Amino acid sequence: MPPPPPLARRLLLQPLPSGARALHTTPGVLACRLASRAVVRFAGPEAARFLHSLLTNDLLSAFSAAGASSPQRYAPTPNAPARGPAAPAYAALLTPQGRFLYDLFLYRPPPRSQMLDRTGSAPETGEAPEGHPHLQEVLADVDAAEVDDLVACFKRYRLRSKVEIDNVSENFACWQRFGHDVVHTEPSTQEPEAQSIGWGQGVDHAGESAAQGNDHSWQWLKDPRLDYLGYRGIFPADTIPPLVESDKEADERHYQLWRIENGVAEGSTEIPKGEAIPLEYNLAGLNAISFEKGCYIGQELIARTHHRGVIRKRLMPMKFVDGNGQELEQAVAPGSEVVDEASGKKVGAVSTALGSRGMGLLRLEEALKPGSALRAGGNRDVRVQAIRPDWWPAEWTQVLQEQRAAA
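The chain above was modelled as a monomer; its predicted structure follows.
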């Protein structure tokens, strides 16, 4: 008998809470603590460079560009950094064969030397000295079910690099703010509600500070993947993040459903560890992969697949309905095949299912074919509607359209 899944996963496998099935039609902003995520700290003078050499994204450029472009504050605000925090980055660690292992949200906390004290006076230098431990500290939001294996994996790669790697999940927690009303296209990385707090719509920076962070300046920052996904942050485990009200703190399954509806997988349960090809799981479209940086683990396969230009299978959101188009709750289990009714051929499989929604790796030609009829394998009464997410770039399906036009 297999061992039970970790607690975070068992919570997500429980029946969907009342009202969650209608989340995609419900306005408002929700926030939830992500029990499925843990926090790992990389600290030392070579921490950022160490991660940059292993992961799929260009972390050195991301952190330095964010710091250089962050606006200077023109009014002293206690507990807020002298300039804006670096935007988080999203990246993945791959196997040498280019298969997915772990996804990481990476945050560079502001150095304490940049923090204003309680009196509101400016920091002495405004910058940490070279080699200052905080300058090279990176916090990573990772899959809680894999955190021990992830830490062990990074320690194997550490060799002589000057970096310490620790699981600090007892001290920190990951949170997400999401929903229709939080989606926006502003260039700022900061929570829009925080910008409008106080007199003068944001001139009151003390009010802004109170809304954004606490005495350690932990803040909500724009999710680095998509505007659709709202805001994400790491906060001390013993505090409630700013802007979170008791009546708006949601069960994590609401957030999972929000991701499923937008076709965004997260963690090694939804992106099969050691098996998934990152481009098929849309990691390039989620800002997790840089095609400009130098070498990293697994780069050869990623570059070859990318330059070939055709991805025939992709992770897609789907809806489970009956013959009349009515949504069916809890009718399909992860691992179920998706079959083309006309040909009887397998089109793909369901990787994640929650309520009447799911995600799965499907062959684009069959899944997006006009008039196609898909069903859950082994259950002729359950139809599968594959959905092309709004955020997908046009070129992902342009080749298929050209092929149909030529035929």
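Residues 124 and 374 are 64 Å apart (CA to CA).
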